[in-house]
């Protein structure tokens, strides 16, 4: 068991969070990195095509993909309750 799991035993994850963590742990971490890079590439292409609004919209997807990848990595390393 890790230190994070033992630091506060009275707080447990709910069934929804546990189910999400079990499913996301099955995804490769590279998926989120490539998704972020892909969204940046699509954003650049849309900007080049002159579609600024869609370019900005798609370009904002990179940060959430990277955050999801970080969450995925933490779940894999630390697990859940």
Instruction: Provide the succession of SSEs.
Output: HHHHH
Average per-residue pLDDT, rounded, comes to 84
Tally of extended strands? 0
What is the beta-strand fraction? Answer: under 5%
Q: Helix share of residues?
A: over 70%
> Count the helices. How many?
5
**Biggest pleated sheet:** none
Low-confidence segments, ≥5 residues, pLDDT <50?
none
Q: What class would the helix/strand composition place it in?
A: mainly alpha
Which oligomeric state applies? single chain
Outline: elongated
Rg, alpha carbons? 17 Å
Distance between the termini: 10 Å
Notes on the structure:
This protein has helices spanning 3-6, 15-24, 29-49, 52-59, 62-78. The chain is built from 5 helices and no strands. It has a domain at 28-81. The mean pLDDT is 84. The relative contact order is 0.20. It is mostly helical and 81 residues long. It is elongated and about 55 Å long. Helix 3 (29-49) packs antiparallel against helix 4 and helix 3 runs antiparallel to helix 5.
Please give a handful of descriptors for the protein shown.
single chain, 81 residues, mainly alpha, 74% helix, elongated
In short:
The protein is mainly α. The protein has a domain at 28-81. The protein has five helices and no strands.
Blueprint of the fold:
Blueprint: H1 3-6, H2 15-24, H3 29-49, H4 52-59, H5 62-78
Helix pairs in contact: 3-4, 3-5
């Amino acid at each position: 068991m890790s230190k994070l799991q033992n630091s506060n035993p009275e707080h447990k994850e709910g069934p929804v969070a546990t189910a999400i963590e079990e499913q996301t742990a099955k995804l490769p971490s590279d998926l989120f990195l490539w998704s972020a890079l892909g969204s940046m590439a699509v954003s650049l292409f849309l900007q080049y095509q002159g579609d600024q609004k869609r370019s900005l919209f798609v370009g904002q997807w990179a940060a959430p993909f990277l955050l999801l990848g970080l969450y995925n990595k933490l779940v894999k390393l630390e697990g859940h309750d």
